[in-house]
Amino acid sequence: MSKPFTANDLSFQLDSELTWRRKELSDLKSAIRNADPIARNVLLRSLVTMSYAHWEGYVRVSAMKYFTHITLKKKSYRELDRQFYTNSFMARLDAFYRSKSSTKDACAFIISILDSLDSRFAFINPQLIDTKSNLNTDVINDLCLVCGFDGTFFESSRFFIDATLLKKRNAIAHGQEDGIDERDVDEFVNTTLSLLEHFRTLIENKVYTKSYLATT
Question: Hey, how many other C-beta atoms are within 10 angstroms of the C-beta on 56?
């Protein structure tokens, strides 16, 4: 797939990512309805793990595409929202503290911060968009902060994300007999997809309004 040079390129790629995930969940729903009782229970458990996989996968892939789009703008940190500049030092700052560096190293690190505003944004540290194989509300909020997004929607969906989607997925992954009721399938899938769709909307709003740029 080509790089997301334009806003339309990015939007197309985000939609493509969402389309195949939506279809896969739709196909799984159909299989559940047509299955015999024994197979249906297995498929209901599969639906939980697949729904979580698409939640985590879509967020991670979409966030990376967003940052790739911004790097292709070839803007300096000075031209971008301050969060981009903050991001560039977060992983290094963590490593710096763990290394117990000398005063000389500390001074050099601070100088590098002060002197790099005119450097070009060309890289996002993957650690900053790590979903930690446990994309709960706190993790998605942190990721929204790194991206410069408003995470209010996800906070309002905390119960579903943490107590339903993630909790049931973890229970199944740890070999427990858990799942969802067949009567809840539509609501479960629709709520999961609403999370993906909202994350896409956050990215598209940022890109089309160019609010990733520094304010004058």
Answer: 20
